Amino acid sequence: MTAESGEPSSLMAALTHYLREREAAAVRARKQLGVNELDAKAMSFVGEHPGVRPSELAGHLGVTSAGVTTMVERLVRRGILRREADEADRRVNHIHLAIDLAKEPWSQLARFDDTCRRIIQGLDPQLEADLAVLLRQTTMAASEQAERVDVISAEEASAA
After folding, report:
1. pTM listed for this prediction
2. Are residues 140 and 112 in the same domain?
3. Less packed terminus of the chain by CB within 10 Å, N or C?
4. Which residues contact 29 (CB under 8 A, 6 or more apart)?
5. One digit per residue, pLDDT tens: the chain, 160 residues?
6. Which residues contact 73 (CB under 8 A, 6 or more apart)?
7. Does residue 2 lie in a domain region?
8. By residue range, what is the domain housing residue 74?
9. Same domain, yes or no, for 67 and 138?
Protein backbone atom coordinates (compact mmCIF):
# COMPACT_ATOMS: atom_id res chain seq x y z
CA MET A 1 0.00 0.00 0.00
CA THR A 2 1.10 3.50 -0.58
CA ALA A 3 1.33 5.40 2.70
CA GLU A 4 -0.34 8.51 1.31
CA SER A 5 -3.50 7.05 -0.19
CA GLY A 6 -3.96 3.63 1.38
CA GLU A 7 -4.26 2.23 -2.17
CA PRO A 8 -2.34 -0.87 -3.20
CA SER A 9 1.00 -0.15 -4.80
CA SER A 10 1.26 -0.66 -8.53
CA LEU A 11 3.65 -3.58 -7.91
CA MET A 12 1.23 -5.27 -5.51
CA ALA A 13 -1.61 -4.72 -7.97
CA ALA A 14 0.50 -6.24 -10.76
CA LEU A 15 1.35 -9.29 -8.63
CA THR A 16 -2.30 -9.79 -7.72
CA HIS A 17 -3.27 -9.50 -11.39
CA TYR A 18 -0.57 -12.03 -12.36
CA LEU A 19 -1.80 -14.53 -9.76
CA ARG A 20 -5.44 -14.16 -10.82
CA GLU A 21 -4.61 -14.53 -14.52
CA ARG A 22 -2.36 -17.53 -13.86
CA GLU A 23 -5.12 -19.26 -11.92
CA ALA A 24 -7.70 -18.39 -14.59
CA ALA A 25 -5.43 -19.85 -17.28
CA ALA A 26 -4.99 -23.02 -15.22
CA VAL A 27 -8.74 -23.35 -14.71
CA ARG A 28 -9.38 -22.93 -18.46
CA ALA A 29 -6.72 -25.51 -19.36
CA ARG A 30 -8.01 -28.04 -16.82
CA LYS A 31 -11.58 -27.54 -18.03
CA GLN A 32 -10.58 -28.06 -21.67
CA LEU A 33 -8.66 -31.21 -20.74
CA GLY A 34 -11.34 -32.56 -18.41
CA VAL A 35 -9.08 -32.82 -15.36
CA ASN A 36 -9.51 -31.30 -11.94
CA GLU A 37 -6.92 -29.39 -9.93
CA LEU A 38 -5.78 -32.44 -7.97
CA ASP A 39 -5.43 -34.46 -11.19
CA ALA A 40 -3.25 -31.69 -12.68
CA LYS A 41 -1.08 -31.58 -9.54
CA ALA A 42 -0.70 -35.35 -9.66
CA MET A 43 0.23 -35.28 -13.34
CA SER A 44 2.84 -32.60 -12.70
CA PHE A 45 4.34 -34.52 -9.76
CA VAL A 46 4.44 -37.81 -11.69
CA GLY A 47 6.05 -35.97 -14.60
CA GLU A 48 8.75 -34.65 -12.27
CA HIS A 49 9.11 -37.99 -10.43
CA PRO A 50 8.60 -40.82 -12.94
CA GLY A 51 8.03 -44.15 -11.23
CA VAL A 52 6.70 -42.58 -8.04
CA ARG A 53 4.94 -44.93 -5.65
CA PRO A 54 1.29 -44.30 -4.82
CA SER A 55 2.15 -43.64 -1.16
CA GLU A 56 4.61 -40.92 -2.18
CA LEU A 57 2.04 -39.34 -4.50
CA ALA A 58 -0.60 -39.45 -1.74
CA GLY A 59 1.83 -37.78 0.67
CA HIS A 60 2.66 -35.04 -1.82
CA LEU A 61 -1.00 -34.36 -2.59
CA GLY A 62 -2.14 -34.64 1.01
CA VAL A 63 -4.76 -37.30 0.29
CA THR A 64 -5.39 -40.77 1.67
CA SER A 65 -4.07 -43.89 0.04
CA ALA A 66 -7.65 -44.78 -0.93
CA GLY A 67 -8.08 -41.35 -2.50
CA VAL A 68 -4.90 -41.62 -4.53
CA THR A 69 -5.80 -45.17 -5.62
CA THR A 70 -9.17 -43.96 -6.94
CA MET A 71 -7.58 -40.99 -8.72
CA VAL A 72 -4.77 -43.06 -10.27
CA GLU A 73 -7.26 -45.69 -11.46
CA ARG A 74 -9.40 -43.01 -13.10
CA LEU A 75 -6.37 -41.42 -14.81
CA VAL A 76 -5.11 -44.84 -15.94
CA ARG A 77 -8.53 -45.58 -17.50
CA ARG A 78 -8.31 -42.25 -19.36
CA GLY A 79 -4.84 -43.13 -20.65
CA ILE A 80 -3.14 -40.29 -18.77
CA LEU A 81 -1.16 -42.40 -16.29
CA ARG A 82 0.14 -45.95 -16.39
CA ARG A 83 1.15 -48.32 -13.63
CA GLU A 84 4.14 -50.61 -13.69
CA ALA A 85 4.71 -53.41 -11.22
CA ASP A 86 8.00 -53.33 -9.34
CA GLU A 87 10.45 -55.94 -10.64
CA ALA A 88 11.50 -57.05 -7.14
CA ASP A 89 8.11 -56.82 -5.43
CA ARG A 90 5.06 -57.36 -7.64
CA ARG A 91 2.80 -55.92 -4.90
CA VAL A 92 4.39 -52.50 -5.43
CA ASN A 93 3.31 -50.24 -8.29
CA HIS A 94 5.18 -47.35 -9.85
CA ILE A 95 3.25 -44.59 -11.58
CA HIS A 96 4.32 -42.99 -14.86
CA LEU A 97 2.79 -40.53 -17.28
CA ALA A 98 1.28 -42.15 -20.35
CA ILE A 99 1.09 -38.76 -22.07
CA ASP A 100 3.65 -36.07 -22.91
CA LEU A 101 2.93 -32.89 -20.95
CA ALA A 102 5.06 -30.91 -23.43
CA LYS A 103 2.80 -31.81 -26.37
CA GLU A 104 -0.71 -30.70 -27.28
CA PRO A 105 -3.21 -30.81 -25.81
CA TRP A 106 -1.48 -31.32 -22.47
CA SER A 107 0.95 -28.44 -22.96
CA GLN A 108 -2.00 -26.12 -22.27
CA LEU A 109 -1.42 -26.79 -18.56
CA ALA A 110 1.93 -24.97 -18.67
CA ARG A 111 1.33 -22.46 -21.48
CA PHE A 112 0.86 -19.40 -19.20
CA ASP A 113 4.05 -20.16 -17.25
CA ASP A 114 5.98 -20.93 -20.43
CA THR A 115 4.97 -17.57 -21.92
CA CYS A 116 5.95 -15.71 -18.75
CA ARG A 117 9.26 -17.60 -18.66
CA ARG A 118 10.09 -16.51 -22.23
CA ILE A 119 9.30 -12.87 -21.42
CA ILE A 120 11.38 -12.95 -18.24
CA GLN A 121 14.33 -14.41 -20.16
CA GLY A 122 14.33 -11.20 -22.22
CA LEU A 123 14.79 -8.97 -19.17
CA ASP A 124 18.04 -7.34 -18.21
CA PRO A 125 19.77 -9.98 -16.01
CA GLN A 126 20.33 -7.52 -13.16
CA LEU A 127 16.69 -6.42 -13.18
CA GLU A 128 15.59 -10.07 -13.14
CA ALA A 129 17.94 -10.81 -10.22
CA ASP A 130 16.73 -7.75 -8.28
CA LEU A 131 13.07 -8.67 -8.81
CA ALA A 132 13.78 -12.26 -7.74
CA VAL A 133 15.39 -11.05 -4.51
CA LEU A 134 12.49 -8.69 -3.82
CA LEU A 135 9.89 -11.40 -4.39
CA ARG A 136 11.76 -14.00 -2.29
CA GLN A 137 12.23 -11.58 0.62
CA THR A 138 8.62 -10.41 0.45
CA THR A 139 7.33 -13.98 0.31
CA MET A 140 9.50 -15.07 3.26
CA ALA A 141 8.42 -12.10 5.38
CA ALA A 142 4.73 -12.64 4.60
CA SER A 143 5.03 -16.40 5.29
CA GLU A 144 6.76 -15.78 8.61
CA GLN A 145 4.04 -13.31 9.60
CA ALA A 146 1.30 -15.77 8.65
CA GLU A 147 3.00 -18.49 10.72
CA ARG A 148 3.07 -16.16 13.75
CA VAL A 149 -0.66 -15.53 13.35
CA ASP A 150 -1.28 -19.29 13.13
CA VAL A 151 0.70 -19.88 16.35
CA ILE A 152 -1.12 -17.11 18.19
CA SER A 153 -4.50 -18.45 17.02
CA ALA A 154 -3.58 -21.96 18.14
CA GLU A 155 -2.45 -20.68 21.56
CA GLU A 156 -5.66 -18.68 21.98
CA ALA A 157 -7.76 -21.69 21.00
CA SER A 158 -6.00 -23.97 23.48
CA ALA A 159 -6.34 -21.39 26.27
CA ALA A 160 -10.12 -21.12 25.75
Report:
1. 0.76
2. no
3. C
4. 40, 108, 109, 111, 112
5. 555 667 779 999 999 999 999 999 999 999 999 999 999 999 999 999 999 999 999 999 999 999 999 999 999 999 999 999 988 888 889 999 999 999 999 999 899 999 999 999 999 999 999 999 999 999 999 999 888 876 777 777 777 6
6. none
7. no
8. 10-122
9. no
Cα–Cα distance for residue pair 13/103, rounded to 1 Å: 33
Amino acid at 39: D
Whether residues 60 and 15 share a domain: the answer is: yes
Q: How far apart are CA 107 and CA 156, in angstroms?
A: 46
Please enumerate in sequence order all residues whose Cβ is within 8 A of that of 19, keeping only pairs 6 or more positions apart, or say none.
Answer: none
Same domain membership, residue 97 and residue 132: no
C-beta neighbour count of 108 within 10 angstroms: 16
Tell whether 77 and 21 lie within a shared domain.
Answer: yes
CA 16/CA 154 separation, integer angstroms: 29
Paired residues of 52 in beta bridges: 95
Number of domains in the chain: 2
Task: Give ∠ CA 23-29-30 in degrees, rounded to 5.
Answer: 90
